[in-house]
């Protein structure tokens, strides 16, 4: 699938009045907030559509800047890199952290402990 093909599909989805995400699930998530008492159908539709468009934007941005162009895939590391490197997605760095090996993490902990001992 070419990049132009994907952008055309995103454009069609943007202009469509249909949604791919289940509105019942979005309603459940919205109702989980103690601040929400009732949900208007229009507000539910707009929230669902906005969420869908955000996920498409994140996926497309991650794919364009990711390593899976040759194999036509999108990986977790592509999403994590987009969250870390793109200012728009900086708020996702806690949700999509870069994966590190356990031995690398333990090594960095040891170095931090050494630094603390030197102070």
Question: Short description, anyone?
Answer:
By secondary structure, this protein is an all-alpha fold. Helices cover 62% and strands 0% of the residues.
Comma- or semicolon-separated keywords:
single chain, about 120 residues, mainly alpha, 5 helices, about 60% helix
Walk me through the structure.
This is Chromatin accessibility complex protein 1. One of its GO terms (cellular component) is CHRAC. There is one protein chain. With 119 residues, the protein is mainly alpha-helical. 62% of the residues lie in helices and 0% in strands. It has five helices and no strands. The protein has helices spanning 3-15, 23-31, 41-65, 76-85, 102-118. α1 packs antiparallel against α3 and α3 crosses α4. The longest helix is centred in the middle third of the chain and has 25 residues, at 41-65.
Global morphology: flat
Major sheet attributes: none
Summed up, the helix count is 5
Mean pLDDT, nearest integer? 85
Strand content: under 5%
Residues in helix, %: 55-70%
């Amino acid at each position: 699938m070419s990049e132009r093909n994907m952008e055309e599909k995103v454009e069609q989805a943007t202009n469509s009045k249909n949604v791919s995400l289940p509105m019942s699930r979005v309603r459940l998530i919205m109702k989980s907030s103690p601040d929400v008492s009732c949900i208007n159908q229009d507000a539910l539709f707009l929230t669902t559509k906005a969420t869908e468009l955000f996920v498409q934007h994140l996926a497309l941005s991650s794919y364009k800047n990711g390593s899976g162009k040759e194999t036509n895939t999108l990986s977790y590391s592509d999403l994590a890199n987009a969250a870390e490197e793109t200012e728009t997605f900086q708020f996702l760095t806690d949700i999509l952290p870069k994966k590190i090996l356990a031995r690398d993490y333990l090594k960095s902990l040891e170095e931090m402990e050494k630094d603390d001992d030197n102070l």
